[in-house]
Q: What sequence folds into this?
């Protein structure tokens, strides 16, 4: 028996960093997927393989021993797979399997790869172990996995990987609201290697906040207003407004100190080539930018590919999906 | 008889654009000068020459005819010379002269070239016509010249060209205060050709203000706080704080939409090469950036010169000075 589950990644459109200080944020699921394929085994061995890298970890369910091949960046993601399997096994029978993991988006780039892997793993294992979890239970369990692996996690990523679509996270994260969008939102994502990780960048902004509270306070207030107006712009499909808000938001992220020379080059190259708006997405410090391209998307894609890695990433309104081949 | 007067230009350190909305600003005089040399004539002819461009305008004081040779960018500055001579002649005798104008800083780059030319012209003519104006009268007359030529003008530029030093322009421009600095403030200025003029850029920001009032309101509030804290940092010679405030301010100017790809490249190249802080200075849209370089100033200079025009520009605590050779 083969079971394949695929879950989409996400991009943050508005609210990165300010969301840490209780401001609203907007993120959308994009058509870049994590795929998990489970092949049945008759023994109690679990083998984890990442496409192209071979078998990287093995877990024996009998004596609970784990063996890992190396500590490469890509293998950090295996923690999510193992934790997801552990939590779902608590709900059902234990049974060995061969797992093949294929990730379309760059890992650690703020594009929700860990949530996509986690949700896909749970969805596939849910069929394999016949634990019969509903979508909301999958989302909840996936969030729990992220919490246990990372120590802290917003439920946005796992919710988007589960359901797809666009989410608005309200002030002080007191509500997650599905935004009633129905258009494609054509994006190009440009991606550069990370110079700092998310935790370091959040700490850097926090230091600025402590040193210059009234300066940074107003930057976050401005970001809050941007997200609120962007919410309307997205629902109304007001392309010009959406693009302008992205450009303003980019400058504010630059002011917070999370921009880099290459991100800046990509943001401006995208605008010059025809993107209506462009900005850093995610924590910055290297990582990714998004360019909103209702026209000239191919030109912007080629331009950004000349600078660094880039790909198209339209919004998806479908979340995780599972296929079983007997 | 030869009379030579030299007046310094200026850079805005903090408060560009937000000053238009009543927020405070800080500017300093820099060691880049406009030089005016007056040579006595016995007739009533005034000839205006810009160094390297030959005689560009002639004015006959008898019949008040003016002939101009061309309308190149550099010659726009001649309006200030002619207006300054007109206003000072109202106060004293009329007498012909040959005027040679030499400008060290790029014209129309937000570096106070028109104020420096105006102040130098008035100071030289003041000696030539023996009108005996004191410094405060020179500054006042120079501001009047800028007002009449431009329609609107802050008194900051003409005050700095007259007195040198550092000025703080208070909220709602209700006071100009000389800042008690006594250190060199080593800067590199990078300069690119202007894509838009100041009036267009102010209009662009005004449109954003009208379209997104609450977003832009908070950006200006943040800029206001930056200028207030920068005032202390300058007086205390807190280099780290000064540099960080410059970097934050640059991001906010980017958010206002006055940054360009080349300015952004220069700002980041300066920081990467060793500048402690860097930002757009003046209206943006092309124009100039400043890089604050207590160390590695030569490296930053060479790096920026590879991208566009760049030069060192330390603060000067001396204003306009005049020399007479019989």
A:
């Amino acid at each position: 028996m083969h079971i394949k589950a695929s879950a989409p990644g996400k991009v943050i459109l508005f609210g990165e960093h300010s969301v840490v200080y209780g401001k609203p944020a907007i993120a959308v699921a994009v058509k870049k997927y994590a795929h998990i394929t489970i092949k049945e085994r008759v023994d109690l061995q679990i083998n984890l393989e990442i496409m192209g890298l071979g078998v990287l970890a093995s877990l024996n369910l009998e004596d609970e021993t784990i063996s890992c091949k190396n500590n490469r960046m890509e293998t950090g993601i295996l923690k999510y797979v193992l934790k997801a399997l552990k939590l779902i096994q608590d709900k059902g029978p234990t049974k060995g399997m061969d797992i093949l993991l294929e990730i379309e988006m760059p890992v650690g780039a703020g594009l929700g790869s860990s949530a996509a892997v986690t949700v896909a793993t749970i969805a596939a294992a849910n069929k394999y172990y016949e634990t019969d979890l509903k979508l909301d239970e999958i989302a909840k369990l996936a969030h729990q996995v992220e919490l246990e692996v990372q120590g802290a996690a917003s439920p946005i990523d796992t919710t988007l990987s589960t359901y797809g679509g666009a989410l608005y996270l309200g002030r002080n994260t007191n509500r997650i609201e599905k935004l009633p969008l129905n258009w494609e939102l054509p994006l190009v994502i440009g991606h550069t290697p990370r110079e700092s990780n998310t935790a370091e960048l959040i700490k850097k902004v926090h230091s600025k906040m402590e040193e210059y509270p009234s300066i940074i306070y107003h930057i976050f207030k401005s970001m809050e207003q941007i997200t609120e107006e962007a919410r309307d712009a997205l629902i109304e499909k007001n392309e010009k407004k959406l693009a302008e808000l992205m450009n303003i938001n980019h400058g504010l992220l630059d002011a917070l100190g999370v921009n880099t020379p290459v991100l800046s080059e990509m943001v401006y190259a995208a605008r010059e080539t025809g993107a209506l708006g462009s900005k850093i997405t995610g924590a910055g410090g290297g990582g990714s930018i998004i360019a909103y391209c209702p026209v000239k998307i191919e030109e912007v894609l080629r331009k950004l590919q000349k600078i660094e890695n880039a790909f198209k990433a339209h919004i998806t309104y479908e979340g995780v999906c599972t296929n079983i081949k007997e």
